[in-house]
Structures are given as structure tokens and as C-alpha cells.
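writing this on my phone so excuse typos. first protein, seq and then structure
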Amino acid sequence: MKILITGFDPFGGEAVNPSIETVRLLPEKIAGADLIKLEIPTSFQRALPAIEKAIEKYDPDVVLSVGQAGGNAAIAVERVGINLSDARIPDNDGFQPMDEPIAADGPAAYFTTIPARRIVERLRRDGIPAVLSYSAGTFVCNQVTYGVCHLLATRFPKKQSGFLHIPYLPSQVADRPQEPSMSQDMLVAALTAAVETIAAAW
């Protein structure tokens, strides 16, 4: 099987984004699954087209997206994407949508289709803090969570998708010690375990 795994470029004044930094450190193959790694822009208008182009090119079985969630202390495995873009801050293009649907013809929400609960259980068994999340927010991470679900439902119905929110790296909070973070090694272990769980369930 093939898994397209995406991470975002830095945004919000950060020098790095732990999502793409961690994706880059993954091996090319995990549990028999070939990984296709893709950096996507933190952009409401450009993130989904980049993913769609990669799906058309590589024909993956699963799209697993990863994003930064500053303030999180655990890996959050998203269950739901909602049909709403409502940005607290501008994206990397300076675009700040408010109260806008992601897909005018789409349903109010989609459930992700990766084995989310099993991923959380596996991460906890491995000693990695993890939670099921029922809100991916309304920024670009939700845009991708919902948008990929909609894309697969309307164009690629046999494929699966999901989204993981990960904490800051320690280097990002060196001057903000009150903010939670997670080591790079643990983030790599978490994504590896998530891919292994997805592959085992395929």
C-alpha cells in the first residue's frame, strides 16, 4: 500500500513547523507501506490543490496529514472536519477567511476514515500521550481535514484519510517554558506507530 503523508511549512512567525520536520525524518517504508512525503503550504487556497495533485500523481491508498497544534501536550487524532473556514490569524498568503464554507456543495461535516481510536490506543501503549479529538479547529488544518475527506468522497471513494495534530518541538518553546512540547524522537515514534496501525488495518 501507499500512504501520502503531508506536513505544513512554518507559519505564524515560527522558524520551523514540527509537522513537516517530523515527516521528513520518517523512513521511506513502514510496515510494508510506501510513504510519499509532501510539504504543503499553510494556505487556505493552496493546501488542498497541492494534495489533490499528489493524489493524482501517486495514487495513494491513504492520505495522512499532520499539523502543528501549539499548546497541545499530546498527539491529537482528529475524528471530524467541519465545513467552515474561520481564521483567527491570516495564513501564509495573508488570507483570513471568516464564516466561509470549504465546499459550498458539501455536508456540514465529515468523519475521518483512518482507525483513529486504535491509533490513540497504540500510542498510549507505547507511552506517548495521545487523545481523540473532535475538533480540528477552523484554520488550515481543518481546511485539510475536511477538504481531503470531501475530495475523497467525491473523486476517490476507495481511499482513506485522517489528520494528526502534534505539539511544538522543544526548540520552539525555549523562551516559553510554560508551553508544552514533545521531543523530535517521540514525534517520529508517534507518526511511525500511526502508520503501522493504519497499515495493519488496511
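second protein below, same order as before
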Amino acid sequence: MIYKPRMVVAGLAIAAALVTPRAAEAVPSFGAQTGQPCTMCHVGSFGPQLTPFGRAFKIGGYTQGGGEGWASKVPLSVMVLTSFTNTRQDLPAAPQHYDVNNNYSLDQISVFLAGRISDYNGGFVQLTYSPVDNTFHVDNTDLRPFTTSFTVGSHDLRVGITVNTNPTVQDPYNTTPAWGFPFIASALAPTPAAQPMLAGAFANKSVGYTAYVWLDSALYVEAGAYTTPSGWTLARWGNDLSAPHGAIAGAAPYARIAYEHQWNNQSAHVGALFMRADVNPPTGIPFQSSGMNGQDRYSDYAFDASYQFLGDGTHIVTVQGIYMHEDQKLNASGGGGTFSLNQIRANVSYWYQNTYGVTLGWQNTFGSLNPAYGTANGKPNSNAFIAEVDWVPFGKAESWANPWVNLKVGAQYIAYTQFDGGTSNYDGNGRRAGANNTLLVFAWLTF
């Protein structure tokens, strides 16, 4: 395959759509509503990584109260994210309005409508402006139209319904892609082309309707389906049908099961996820897809687990991992071919007094040869090691202006040993995987 700069630009655009910073839930309005500091719900005083209390708050439909005064009734919050991006070697082509390297950027400004409506419903809606590509769109949204809890014999049972715009955005565990590490990523650096469907293919371009049960704060079971809104709706959401997936044909079933055990300020969980979607590939015209040449089928299976040691809040350790396997039957875009894709994500974090954090992560993607990925050799294989250090001065009970001023300052480095199917000359033009190694320095503010 001949390497062309316009392919790089297209790849960067797709990558940016996949790695938009997954920032939500850690909104000050929730803290004011509950009367609790951010450390109660979040590891490291800042989201999105949840503690057991935070998971209970989310599964409970964001309905818990306890705050006092007028501030506890205001469901509005704002988030601003700015960063500096450096890649080991210059980009093959500069993103619009930016240089080929060493870019400062205002990545996003988000407004959240987030809080309880009553004891039986709540949720959040995120609206985001992205200065990088000058777009405004409906971002992560998780609405809980109804939830309640009751006693069945000697057991506590909570039931609920969620309507959301991103598969796994409603999930209470930080192993799943919507809230998994890294919690923030550069919108300007290259990222691998091949990603499982669960890792953002339908993020904020679908609507999911699921119901869940939570037994004895331990067993979590959820099931439902996702659909793709009309092109008219997507246009007004500010989202389109990007390659390679397109639009869900009919309804895509989704299921989740997890079991969590808590003891001595520690917790651990194991779980599994499933999603299957028949899709009409995009036509190249925004907001349009077509099944004229058949449909592609993606079936994703995932297994995840985590461990948290919270102790007394002085020393905190978390370990998280997920394995995703995808079967692909590409009747439309792959000539009827059958392919597979796998991805492993794992990370371990240490926090001191919920203020200073260090996280080490690993992501490995591998699978069968598939020209649909658009890589020079058709291979999906990529391997990355991630290191991040963070400082969060606020978010504690004694913090200034708690909970309305929250800041995370951090530095993240991603090192690639394999990228888009190769180590050296992966693009057919002599570029090495390590050329995409990325340093990201960021400031993340919510108020």
C-alpha cells in the first residue's frame, strides 16, 4: 500500500474521535448535592475512578442527597481541559491550525447538567465544545428515569433503568472503555487504528436502553439494547457516522454481569460484558449509512476484574484489567470475510493522601489481518506502555471552596513498541512505532 499524507490526516481524525477525554461524573454538583468531598466517591480526589461509595451513588441513579443550602440544588458544573502534546518525531502532516509537533491546545470545554430529580431518578448530560476541531456536540450522557430499592427476604435489591449515549458509560466499574485508564488522552497525537467495537465505536452516536439489578451491593446484572438515532438527530447532536462501523441496523443487544466483594476498606470484582451489532457501513456522506451491499456484524466479549485498597486514605492502591475479544463478519466492507480482534488493558495506581498519584498502564491489541483497518500492512497489532503522574490539590473535605473548585495537573507518557501492525516502517514510508511516543502535560479543571 502506498503511504499518503491524507491517510494520516484521516487516521488522526478517527483517532481523535476515539480518544476524546472521558471526563464526566467527577462534577462538583454531585459533591454539593450529597454534601460529601470528592474523595468519598473518587480515588485521587478527582474522577472518574470510583470508590465503592461512588459506585453505589451511580447505581443508585445519582439520587442520594445530604447537601445543604442553595448550592445543593444547583445541577450545573463546568469543565475545562488544556494540554501540551509532544511526539517523539514530528507528525507526517500537521492537524489543521496546529504544528507538526509541540502543540499547546485548549482541548475541551464542557457543561454538565448533573444531579438528582427525585428519590427515584437522576442523571447527567454533558455538552462539549472542542476547540481542537471547532465542534460542539452532545457528549457522555447517562439518565436514570427510574430506580428504587427494596428488601426481598433477607436481601437488599436495587433495580433501575438507564438511557445513555455510549456503551459502558453507565457501567459502575473503571475497567470498561468509557471510564478506563487513561482517563485523558491527547486529541492531537496519533493513536492505533484498530479498536474493538466496545472501545468507542458508538460513543455518543447511539442510544442505549438497559435495565439493571444490584443484589446485596455485590451482584450487578444489566441487559438491554442500543440503536443509532436518525441522521437528522445525529446532526443536531454534533456527531456523525465515522468509519469503520457506521450505524446499528435494528437493535444491538448488550449485557453485563459483575460480582464485587468488599472487606476491611478493600474491594475486588470480576465480571463479563457482551455486545453484538449488525451495522450498515458509512457511505462517506455525513450522517448516512447503507446496507445496500450487506451488513457487517461485530460480536464483542469481555472479561474484567479489579482490586482496590483504600485503607484510611493515606495509601491507596488500585489494580484494573480487561480483556476484549471481537468476532467480525464483514459481509459489506470485507467481502464476507471473517476476522478477529483482541485487546488487553491493564493498569495499577498508587495514591498518597488522595493528592499525589502514579499510574502504570499497558494496552495490547492483536488480531487477524484485515484491510478494513486501513493500516499499511492490514494488521491491527499495537502495543503501548503508559505512565502518568498526577497532582490533585483540592477535592478533600478541608479543601478551599469544596466542592466547587477541583484541579488535576498531570504528565503522561505513552511508549509504543508496536503501532498499526509494525515496529519499523509500519506505514510503508519508514516511520517507526516509537515515533508516535507521546508526552502529554495537562491541566484539568472542574467547577
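The mean pLDDT is 91. thats all i got for now
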